[in-house]
Amino acid sequence: MKSFHFLVFFALALAFSFASAFDPSPLQDFCVAIPEPKNAVFVNGKFCKNPNLTVAEDFFFWGLNVPGNTENRVGSNVTLVNVDKIPGLNTLGISLARLDFAPNGGLNPPHTHPRGTEILVVVEGTLYVGFVTSNPNRLITKVLYPGDVFVFPIGLIHFQFNIAKTNAVAFAGLSSQNPGVITIADAIFGPNPPINPDVLAKAFQLDKDEVEKLQKLFENA
């Protein structure tokens, strides 16, 4: 148990020390986010709280020691700690996530973060991870064990897959207060409104009825 706690603290420290900011640099010590005032002009980020009114809770989150629920169709859970969870992250260009994987195939499916690079450290279990480069596409993969670290460059499709018979846990730092996520299968087969199936049939070289089956599968996912 002590070794697990050490790895968790190591993961947190590593994630924050290695994730370099991609968001615009702040022009003050901090800018604690507040709800947008009525009829506010849109800003790239969040409106700022009066610095004199900030409290410790503006910079605090609890619960990353609690395992996420992996009883879902992909067998994984991501607990994201971004600016919506810690208002004090506003303008600081960083966020954090805990990733839990069910045994025997728990998957964080292929996805991208359009606004952030990700650095991941495994603290429990064995993960097969990888990303795909931009055209011409090349797959880069690695099997990770506790203490191993892997980087997923900003915007590239990547995944993590539990290949062991036990649970797996990892922590990730991301170089944005709000890195965003686009899960590839959901984005292609499950958007609202749906993409014209003729487009997808042509793109994936599938029969139209196969595309429509996939769309039906993902529309309520």
From TrEMBL:
Leader sequence segment: 1-21
**CDD domains in alphabetical order:** cupin_OxOx
Glycoprotein listed as a keyword: yes
Q: What keywords tag this UniProt record?
A: Apoplast, Disulfide bond, Glycoprotein, Manganese, Metal-binding, Secreted, Signal
A UniProt-annotated Pfam family: Cupin_1
User: Which Gene3D superfamilies would you find in this protein's record?
Assistant: Jelly Rolls
SUPFAM superfamilies, from UniProt? Answer: RmlC-like cupins
Where in or outside the cell it occurs: the entry states:
Secreted, Extracellular space, Apoplast
Task: Give residue ranges for domain Cupin type-1.
Answer: 62-212
Superkingdom of the organism of origin: Eukaryota
Stated family: Belongs to the germin family.
* PANTHER family, alphabetized: GERMIN-LIKE PROTEIN SUBFAMILY 3 MEMBER 3
Name this protein carries in UniProt: Germin-like protein
Q: What is the lineage of its organism?
A: Eukaryota, Viridiplantae, Streptophyta, Embryophyta, Tracheophyta
